[in-house]
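Translate structure to sequence.
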C-alpha cells in the first residue's frame, strides 16, 4: 500500500512529482524516492523516513527533466532503508511498484544464478532486473513488459521509465490500483485520483491485466492478449481543495468536524421530498427477493460500521446477517448460496482494501450478489460490485478513519430502511419518523462536536495511562470497539473494547484505580444494564468516563466525568453521534503524547496487500 505517481509533459516534473507524492503520503510514509529521465539519462534520488527527508536530495536531479516517477513506501519486504526505497534500477530503467510479488524468491534465485546483484531486499528489484534482462537482450520495453508480467504472481501496479524509450512511461496493473490523469499536452498517473486532481479531473482507471504506454499527449492501453483497449475516461468529482486541511492542524481533526456536513450531504443524496430514494440507494441493482442470507465483509473501522449496521439490518429485513472480517472470511470457506441467494455487502472507505476485494471476487465466483458501500468512485470494489452506494464523505486523508465510519453507518442504515420498504417489511409510516429525526441529525452532531474542549481537558488527565478499556452494550458496544481502535491507532496506548456485560467473565480482572474505562451509555434500551456494569467496575475502583447525558445525576455519582452526548430515539443515529466523543478523545490524547496523528507509525490509509 505504497503510493505511486508520475508525470510526462512540457513542464519540469520534479516539483509536480514531489507534490503528488505529498498527496500520496497517506498510503505509506517510511521512505520515498523519485526517478527522472532527461536527455536519455535516468537519475534517481531516494531517502528513508518521511517524504520531507527526500527534498534536499532533489537538487541532485536534473531540474529540467520533464518525465518523472515517484514512490512513497509502506514496507512489505525489507526494512524502511534508503536501499529498499523505490525507485529500483536495472539495465537502462527505473521502476516503482505498489503491491506484493508473491513468487519473488524463486525469480530472485534465478536472476542471481545468472549473476544479477541485488542492492535491496525488496520483491520489486526482482521485477526491475527481469525487465532489465529483457531490455538488455534487445527487447522493446513494451515487449519486455509483455514477457515479464505473466511471470509475476501477486498484486502490483508498476511504472517504469527506460532510456531506450525517452518519450513514454510504461504502466502495468494487476490487483493494485492505478489511474491515469489526462491533462492538456501533459499526462499523469497515480495510485488514486488525489495524486493529480489538482491538475486534471479527467481520469482513466486501468483494469487488472492491462498495460499502458503513457506519452505527454497519448495513452495506449493493451490487455493480456496484447489487444488494444480503448481508454474509458471518467470525470472525477473531487477537487484539490477538498483534499487539503482547510486551516485545521490535522486532517483527522478536519474530518471529525466535517461529519455534520457529510450527514447533510448523505441525506440530500438519498432522501428526496421526505422519502427514501430506492434507486439512489442501489435497490434496483440487486434482486432482494432472492436473498436468504447476508454477509457484510470489511476490515478495521469499516468492519465496525458493519457490526453497527447489523443491529438494525437483521431485524428490519428478517434475514440473517453475518459480519465478517475479510482477512478471515475467504480462507474459512464460508457457506455461500449461489444464484444470488446470498448477498455479500462490502464496506470500504478506500474501495481498494485487498482482503475485502479478494472476498468479493471469491463470492462473485460462487454466484452471490455483490453490493458495496464505498467512498471512492471507480475504485476496484466499486467496479467489482453489482450495486454500490457511493458515500458522500469526500476524500478521507487522515489514516484513522472518522467521517467515513459515521457515513458508512448512515448509508448502511438508509439502505436497510429502503430494503425493508422494498420487501414490504416496513411501511412509510414506520420509516417517516426516522427520516424526521434524520433531518435534525446534523444538529445533534454539532452538539456532540461542541464537547471538544471538554474532551481536550479530559485528555490532559488521562494521556499518560498505559491502558484503556472501552465498554458499551448493543450498538454502543461497537462504538466502544471503534473507540479502542482509534486510541490504539494514533496514541499507541493499549486499549480494548468490550461488551459491558462481558467484563465480569474475565476482563474485569484488569480493573483497578489506575484503569480508565470509557463507557458509552446513551439513554436507550441498554441503559439500565450498562449502569449495573458500571457499578461493578466502580466497585473495583475503576475510573469510569461516561459518554452520555451530563444531567444524569446517578451516572455522575458513579463516574469521574461525563462527556455530554445528546440522546436520540433512533439507535443507529445514537451510535453515529456517540462516536464523536471517542474520536475526539483519541485525537487529544494523541496530541498530548506527541504522536503523528495523521500518519501513525506502521499504518497506511489503504491496505492494498493481503
Ligand atoms: C481505520 O482507522 C483504519 N484506517 C483501518 O482500520 C481501515 O478502516 C481499514 O483498513 C479498512 O479500510 P477501508 O475502509 O478503506 O477498506
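Result:
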Amino acid at each position: 500500500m505504497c503510493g505511486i505517481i508520475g508525470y510526462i509533459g512540457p513542464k519540469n516534473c520534479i516539483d509536480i512529482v514531489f507534490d503528488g507524492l505529498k498527496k500520496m503520503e497517506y498510503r505509506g510514509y517510511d521512505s520515498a524516492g523519485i526517478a527522472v529521465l532527461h536527455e536519455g539519462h535516468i537519475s534517481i534520488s531516494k531517502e528513508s523516513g518521511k517524504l520531507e527527508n527526500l527534498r534536499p536530495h532533489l537538487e541532485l536531479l536534473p531540474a529540467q527533466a520533464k518525465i518523472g516517477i515517484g514512490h512513497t513506501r509502506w514496507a512489505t519486504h525489507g526494512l524502511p532503508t534508503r536501499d529498499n526505497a523505490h525507485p529500483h534500477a536495472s539495465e537502462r530503467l527505473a521502476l516503482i511498484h505498489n503491491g506484493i510479488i508473491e513468487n519473488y524468491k524463486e525469480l530472485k534465485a534465478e536472476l542471481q544464478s545468472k549473476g544479477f546483484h541485488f542492492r535491496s531486499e525488496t520483491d520489486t528489484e526482482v521485477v526491475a532486473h527481469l525487465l532489465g534482462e529483457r531490455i538488455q537482450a534487445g527487447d522493446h520495453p513494451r515487449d519486455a513488459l509483455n514477457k515479464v508480467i505473466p511471470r509475476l504472481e501477486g498484486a502490483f501496479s508498476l511504472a517504469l521509465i527506460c532510456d531506450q524509450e525517452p518519450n513514454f512511461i510504461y504502466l502495468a496493473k494487476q490487483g493494485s490500483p492505478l489511474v491515469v490523469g489526462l491533462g492538456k499536452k501533459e499526462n499523469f498517473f497515480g495510485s488514486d485520483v488525489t495524486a493529480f486532481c489538482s491538475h486534471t479531473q479527467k481520469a482513466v482507471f486501468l483494469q487488472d491485466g492491462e498495460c499502458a504506454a503513457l506519452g505527454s499527449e497519448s495513452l495506449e492501453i493493451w490487455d493480456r492478449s496484447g489487444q488494444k483497449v480503448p481508454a474509458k475516461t471518467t470525470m472525477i468529482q473531487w477537487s484539490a481543495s477538498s483534499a487539503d486541511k482547510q486551516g485545521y492542524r490535522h486532517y483527522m481533526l478536519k474530518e471529525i468536524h466535517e461529519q455534520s456536513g457529510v450527514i447533510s450531504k448523505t441525506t440530500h443524496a438519498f432522501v428526496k421530498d421526505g422519502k427514501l430514494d430506492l434507486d439512489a440507494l442501489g435497490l434496483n441493482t440487486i434482486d432482494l427477493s432472492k436473498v436468504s442470507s447476508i454477509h457484510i465483509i470489511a476490515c478495521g473501522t469499516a468492519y465496525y460500521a458493519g457490526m453497527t449496521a447489523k443491529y438494525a439490518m437483521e431485524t428490519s429485513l428478517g434475514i440473517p446477517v453475518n459480519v465478517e472480517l475479510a482477512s478471515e472470511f475467504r480462507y474459512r470457506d464460508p457457506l455461500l448460496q449461489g444464484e444470488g441467494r446470498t448477498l455479500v455487502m462490502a464496506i470500504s472507505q478506500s474501495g481498494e482494501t485487498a482482503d475485502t476485494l479478494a472476498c468479493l471476487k471469491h463470492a462473485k465466483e460462487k454466484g452471490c450478489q455483490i453490493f458495496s458501500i464505498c467512498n471512492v468512485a471507480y475504485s476496484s470494489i466499486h467496479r467489482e460490485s453489482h450495486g454500490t452506494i457511493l458515500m458522500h464523505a469526500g476524500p478521507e486523508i487522515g489514516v484513522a478513519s472518522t467521517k467515513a465510519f459515521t457515513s458508512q453507518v448512515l448509508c448502511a442504515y438508509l439502505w436497510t430502511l429502503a430494503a425493508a420498504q422494498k420487501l414490504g417489511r416496513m411501511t412509510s409510516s414506520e420509516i417517516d419518523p426516522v427520516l424526521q429525526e434524520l433531518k435534525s441529525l446534523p444538529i445533534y452532531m454539532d452538539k456532540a462536536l461542541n464537547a471538544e474542549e471538554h474532551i481536550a481537558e479530559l485528555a490532559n488527565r488521562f494521556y499518560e495511562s498505559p491502558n484503556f478499556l472501552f465498554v458499551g452494550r448493543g450498538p454502543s458496544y461497537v462504538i466502544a470497539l471503534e473507540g479502542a481502535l482509534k486510541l490504539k491507532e494514533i496514541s499507541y496506548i493499549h486499549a480494548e473494547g468490550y461488551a459491558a456485560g462481558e467484563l465480569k467473565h474475565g476482563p474485569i480482572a484488569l480493573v483497578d484505580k489506575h484503569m480508565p474505562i470509557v463507557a458509552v451509555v446513551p439513554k436507550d434500551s441498554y441503559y439500565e444494564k450498562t449502569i449495573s456494569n458500571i457499578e461493578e467496575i466502580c466497585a473495583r475502583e475503576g475510573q469510569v468516563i461516561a459518554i452520555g447525558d451530563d444531567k444524569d445525576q446517578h451516572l455522575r455519582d458513579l463516574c469521574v466525568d461525563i462527556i455530554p452526548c445528546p440522546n436520540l430515539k433512533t439507535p443507529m443515529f445514537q451510535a453515529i453521534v456517540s462516536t464523536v466523543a471517542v474520536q475526539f478523545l483519541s485525537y487529544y490524547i494523541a496530541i498530548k503524547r506527541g504522536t503523528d496523528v495523521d500518519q501513525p507509525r506502521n499504518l497506511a490509509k489503504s491496505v492494498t496487500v493481503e
